[in-house]
Amino acid sequence: MRPRRRLAWRLLALAAGLxxxxxxxxxxxxxxxxxxxxxxxxxxxxxWLAPGRTVGQTFRARYPxxxxxxxxxAVRDAEVPLPAGARLRLRLERTDRxxxxxxxxxxxxAGLRHNDTVxxxxxxxxxxxxxxxxxxxxxxxxxxxxxxxxxxxxxxPGGMLVDGAPQAGDLTFTTECAVTWREVAGDLARLAARxxxxxxxxxxxxxxxxxxVDSLLLGGRRDDPWVRxxxxxxxSLAFWAxxxxxxxxxxxxxxxxxxxxxxxxxxxAALWRAYRRRLREAPRRRPFSHRVGEGSRPRWLRGGxxxxxxxxxxxxxxxxxLVFAVAGRALNARALLAPAWVDGLHHTVLTRLISxxxxxxxxxxxxxxxxxxxxxxxxxxxxxxLTWLTPLDPAQAVLVAGQALSALAVxxxxxxxxxxxRRRWAGVGAxxxxxxxxxxxxxxxxxxxxxxxxxxxxxxxxxxxxxxxxRRGGARHxxxxxxLAAGLxxxxxxxxxFYLLAWPLLLAWQGLRGRPTGRxxxxxxxxxxxxxxxxxxxxxxxxxxxxxxxxxxxGSIYGGWxxxxxxxxxxxxxxxxxxxxxxxxxxxxxxxxVGLARRRGGAAFLGAWVGAWFLAANPRALGLHDIWxxxxxxxVISLWLPIAALCGLLAAEAGTAARWVRGRLxxxxxxxxxxxxxxGGTAMLATAxxxxxxxxxxxxxxxxxxxxxxxxxxxxxxxxxxxLFLINSRLWVGDLVVGSDGGYWLPMLADRQTTLPCVxxxxxxxxxxxxxxxxxxxxxxxxxxDDPALLGLxxxxxxxxxxxxxxxxxxxxxxxxxxxHCRTVYSSGPVRxxxxxx
Length: 838
Known about the structure:
Elements: H1 3-28, E1 32-39, E2 44-45, E3 55-60, E4 66-75, E5 87-94, E6 103-108, E7 117-125, E8 132-138, E9 145-149, E10 160-162, E11 165-167, E12 173-179, H2 181-195, H3 199-206, H4 208-218, H5 225-250, H6 257-281, H7 313-332, H8 341-357, H9 378-389, H10 394-421, H11 424-437, H12 444-447, H13 450-472, H14 474-491, H15 493-511, H16 518-538, H17 540-550, H18 554-558, H19 573-577, H20 581-597, H21 601-617, H22 632-636, H23 640-665, H24 673-692, H25 706-718, E13 724-726, E14 729-731, E15 737-739, H26 746-749, E16 753-754, H27 766-781, H28 788-797, E17 801-804, H29 813-816, E18 822-828, E19 831-836
Parallel strand pairs: 13-16, 13-17
Antiparallel strand pairs: 1-12, 2-9, 3-8, 3-10, 4-7, 4-9, 4-12, 5-6, 5-8, 10-11, 14-15, 17-19, 18-19
Helix pairs in contact: 1-24, 3-9, 4-5, 4-6, 4-14, 5-9, 5-10, 5-13, 5-14, 7-10, 7-11, 7-24, 8-9, 8-10, 9-10, 10-11, 10-13, 10-23, 11-23, 11-24, 13-14, 13-15, 13-16, 14-15, 14-16, 15-21, 20-21, 20-23
């Protein structure tokens, strides 16, 4: 078949496959139900419902397609369920559009007990985004029924109604909306409109340094383009980590305009190296594979040849995987106003420290009175680079950098699979699993585990560079291996342990290949020593800090290496079976069996390596004590990387089996239809996985809400800079105390100090830690804020204000509003700011 006809067939097959995928995506997925408006506080029942008496609530919808409202019922006789035939009626009116027909619905109450939830559903309201509504609830008989509510304002956009008249307080309610592909497309369009200006800065932070370093160290080696892309991201992470380490040690500020200068110099050096290399290689350049007519190219190319590399189906599939990964990660974080959960705050603190200092400082001052900063900072250095190259503040930079790395994790999975199994479609399958099918690493956004993620993104490239150094010697490949190992050591200590656990396997793998001789082992040992020694030299200031201060103080900071007595190290079955993880785990196990049966050395390496992870997390199996540095949870949330690689191997072996069957049956070779089917299948699976994980952020981990952001602006403008805020707290892991609502973020988003800093306070002196945890415990244990002993502690600490966030905690408005020691200075919905007058 002629090339043009073959190309036409391939394009036709690809177009048909994508048309099938588009039609399937538009019809195969039902709308997803998500929470719209929510008021979760409850303090007392509303007035009892009876014929002629109504209770209602006004609210404002945020999204289109509102389709249900839930209430919490209060029953007068708590031990007796509501009778058969009992019904609750709803009349929903749009108040910002007079004349719009009301919506009516009802729900069966039979069998409901005290504190149960009643759900009223109605057809989705398409134009509900931003609309104001009034919900009126009634009954036809007196069932001894009321609805839970608050006594004070807890929902800013609306309020409670009794017989149509406004009342103090709000009902406890949740509205639900239906999300369809139309809304998702609209969200993506809005995200793209806001985020396209950030793309140059993100490229300069996550790709450009890696390209320059790769050109300088490896001469721009022509690898698989997706492997090289993963290496560029890994080298960029390592570059920022080492740059900020040495600039901090030397007292040189490399932030702001200096960062642009550093990148410019690095880029010029890389271009000069590429130019010199081109001049050297010109006489021995191989002929190109396809000639172009003399008149179709510029004069400086005439007489030469042009190489045209066709785009393979695997490349097209990887483009789709990456596009869906980027879209999915953007949609996951679209509603977040700050990084989620506990980790998000101290990541922001470290990013701000590096950004303001233009390098890694020696302490946590001025944000914590703690000397000798020793937390791994590689991810934070990259996020700080984003603050220098874009208009993002540190909190936004952490969120953008984290989600960008979460999407680029597909390159790490591709690199691991193709390195171990030498099959491009194994890499595509691995990238598909990591990008769309497995809920990790996408779920890291709920935990803020971005440092762990950055380490895992670095890991495959570091292992591949180490293996190439051992195999080919250290002259050419050792610099990249050294740089990646050093970057990994500064990015995450647990992932560094995974890297070190792979080294015995790498040494055995290289030493036993071919004929093992003494000279061969000596060369391998020298290459390994070169990587280890070079990495230690590269991070010498950090090694000096760790050896000179951290290790001698290990007992007072962490209590030694042993895990805390009574600490749980159980294997979480929930993490292993969430979403589609259980199915993928079984597929990965089957892929391991197939790989071992097919004598794939990469499968044996992967199985032994993951086994070493679990052994390191459970040293009690060897009669030793567990350590806090690595536990089963850390291993489980890292399994997405080997699981993705093994699923990719299984996909590649399935393709091999299909080709064998076609050969035995003597079927004709498909002309482009097989590639189109593979690309279309990849698109369908990526679509299904992205849709399944569309709203995976756990609302419990979201501390900062819109109400908190408005309060932060007020606090910044109306309180003195030296104000100290008492905030809600809770016990977290071991003896660590963390914030339970948006007040935790006051130091970063309002520039005001709180009684509870980020968890890095645990790196301080025992006396400092005891003061922090002691005050938090006193607040938790005191009968009220009016307790004289507690007031004395607050006076000694210098507390001037109390902040109650939207999520709340031990300190709540129902108690503080009536306190003679608290004067309300700000109130909006569930958020309160009190001036404390002990």
